[in-house]
Every structure is written in structure tokens, then in C-alpha cells.
Amino acid sequence: MTIAPALIPKTQRFLELLYVLTARNLKVRYRGSLLGVYWSLLNPVIMTGVYTAVFGTTFAAYYDNSVVNYVLAAFTGLVVISFFNSTTAQALPSVVRNGTLLNKIRLPIGVLPLSMVMANVFQFMVGAFPLLAIITLWVSGNPFHVLLLLLPVLALVIVTTGVSYILSGLYVFFRDLPYLYELVTFILLISSPVFYPAEIVPPLVQPFLALNPLSPIIESIRKLALKGETDLNQIGAAWVGSLVIAGLGWVAFRSWYDQFMDLL
Question: What confidence tens digit (pLDDT) does each residue in 19-32 have?
């Protein structure tokens, strides 16, 4: 017996659509690809090599005089920034790109940017996260720390989702947004302790860098993976910042919702 679509709970329909669109995004992205989801590791691996060649010897003093530790620190930072930048950049045009579909079929528009985020989450969990888990287990020797890695990683997913909603909504109104966002991602990279230790930042600048929601996420992952330390205050700060941005992103997206169809 077929159940009428109107009787299907909205949440179930949303989740079903999310699954279908996420699978479609992955299939389209990696159709005919040699490495598939593992291409996502190429950027952080290459950039880790570049930063190590340029800054490894200089900054090794901040990592127990070990270039290997600097390599691991740079890699963890680049994995975070790469996930955030690539996911938000791909989610940015998701609503506009599906404008024709939305004009033909009634869909919950919010599922479009979220499906892009979920596709990248799957990619991250298959590609980068196992390497972070191996590094954590190798350095700390504590399997519990591998589970704790999920806390800052989930905070990363949450903040990325919030920014994705903001960008995909704004792009409906401002079609030159991608050019501006390239500058924003560069500023995020420079203001995040990715290829440099946070200790070298001048005290006058540190309060401004603390506004970067990715910084506590990167530092939380580094402490767990490279030092075997659990800084609950830093993880808590990462979660608070992520939830605030996610809430603002969803509220903004919903407030623009009614205007989308007139502009698509």
C-alpha cells in the first residue's frame, strides 16, 4: 500500500532527499576519477610539503625541535582549512545552480547546500579522518583520543554548514560573491594557525585572530592528535562559535527563503 506523499513526515522526506542529493553530488564529482574521494587529500599533502620546505626548519623550534612534528601540525591545520574552504565554495552556488529544478519541482531549498556539506563530510571521513586517527593513535597511544577527535571535527562540520547556508543564500542576490569569497578564504588561511605556530602572533593581534572560528578547532585537533591532551575549554569554545554561526546561518537563510524563487 502506497502512502500519500502528504502523509510522509517532513523530516523523513528531508532526509531521503538529503541522501539522494548527497549520493548524486559524489557520483557526479568522481565519475571517471582515478582516485575518487582521495583526491581531497592531494591539496593538504602538497601544501604540507611546500610549507615544510619553506618554514619547516624555522618553526621546528616551536614543535620540540622536530621537523616531523611540524609536518604533522601543518597537515592537521591544512586538513581543517581545506575542508572548510572547499565545502563552502562548492555549497555557495548550490541554490542558484539548481534554480531550474526548483522551478519545476517543489523541494525544501535548505537541502541543497546541506547535501554539498554532507558529500564533503563523507569524503573527509573516508579520506582525511583515518589519517588523523592514525596520527593520534601513533603519538598518544590512547584510542580514546581518537573518539575525542570527533568533537572538534563535528564542530568543524557545524560551522561549515552555517557558513554554507549564508553563502548559498547571499549568492542568489549577489552573483559576484565568488570573487569576494576567494579573498575571504585567503584571509581565513592567513589568520588561522595552519603553517605557523600561534605563539608567534603578536599579543595585539591575537584578540582579532581569536575571532576566527577555525582556530580553536585546529588547536583542539592538534592537542589531541600531536600532544595527547584534551583541552575541554578549547573544544567548548569551538562548539560555541560553531553553534552561533550555524544558528545565524540558518536564520539568515530562512529569512531570505521567500525571495529566492523570484530571483532563480
Answer: 999 998 888 877 76
Hey, how many other C-beta atoms are within 10 angstroms of the C-beta on 173?
Answer: 11
* Among the listed residues 222, 221, 87, 245, the one whose alpha carbon sits nearest the alpha carbon of residue 150: 221
Amino acid letter, residue 49 = G
User: CA–CA separation, 181 vs 19, rounded Å?
Assistant: 28
Query: What DSSP character marks residue 37?
Result: G
Mean pLDDT over 150-171 rounds to 96
pTM, entire model: 0.90
Cβ atoms of 228 and 139 within 8 Å: the answer is yes
Q: How far apart are CA 219 and CA 216, in angstroms?
A: 5
Nine-digit cell at 196?
605557523
Q: What share of the chain is helix, strand, coil (3-state, %, to 5)?
A: 80, 0, 20
Length of the chain: 264
pLDDT in tens, 72-107: 999 999 999 999 999 999 999 999 998 887 888 888
59, three cell numbers: 618553526
Q: What gap in Å lies between CA 50 and CA 32, rounded to an integer?
A: 29
Q: What are phi and psi of 181, to 5 degrees?
A: -70, -25
Q: State residue 241 phi and psi, 5-degree precision.
A: -60, -40
Query: Looking at beta carbons, which pairs linking 149-154 to residues 24 or more positions away fall under 8 Å?
Result: 149/221, 149/224, 149/225, 151/220, 151/235, 151/238, 151/239, 152/216, 152/217, 152/220, 152/221, 152/224, 152/235, 152/238, 153/124, 153/129, 153/221
List strand residue ranges (DSSP E) for 146-245, in order. none
